[in-house]
Amino acid sequence: MNIDLVALIVEEYDPAIAFFTDTLGFDLVEDSPSSTGDGRPKRWVVVRPPGARTGILLARADNEHQRAAIGDQAGGRVGFFLRVDDFDAAYRRMAGASVTFVRPPRTEPYGRVAVFLDVSGNRWDLLGAPA
């Protein structure tokens, strides 16, 4: 058993794809036409870190209730966690790509961590091994 996908509500597909692939280095696994339950067009868009089993389904907001959740899927908390092998290199690359870090790197018992915002404003931890 494993978690295959986690949905992330986004405003638009293409800027979200660009953020996850170009900025974070994820792979675009699938981008297929689809339709909503009532027949409106949408896309099935999946990104995932290279070599990872769990991916993110980028789901464009479909109504006002979903639009209200964009950027606040975890109620203002860090809701997503990206573990990297080389924390310093990843931090420098992301900062150089204009990723917004809302908390600078610090060391915790579980490793190095810095909080950043994704393209929609959700909070993520960038995690690395303890220093």
UniProtKB/TrEMBL annotation:
InterPro entries: Glyas_Bleomycin-R_OHBP_Dase (IPR029068), Glyas_Fos-R_dOase_dom (IPR004360), VOC_core (IPR037523). It comes from the Bacteria. Residues 2-129 form the VOC domain. Pfam families: Glyoxalase. This is VOC family protein. Coiled coil: none annotated. SUPFAM superfamilies: Glyoxalase/Bleomycin resistance protein/Dihydroxybiphenyl dioxygenase (SSF54593). It comes from Paractinoplanes rhizophilus.
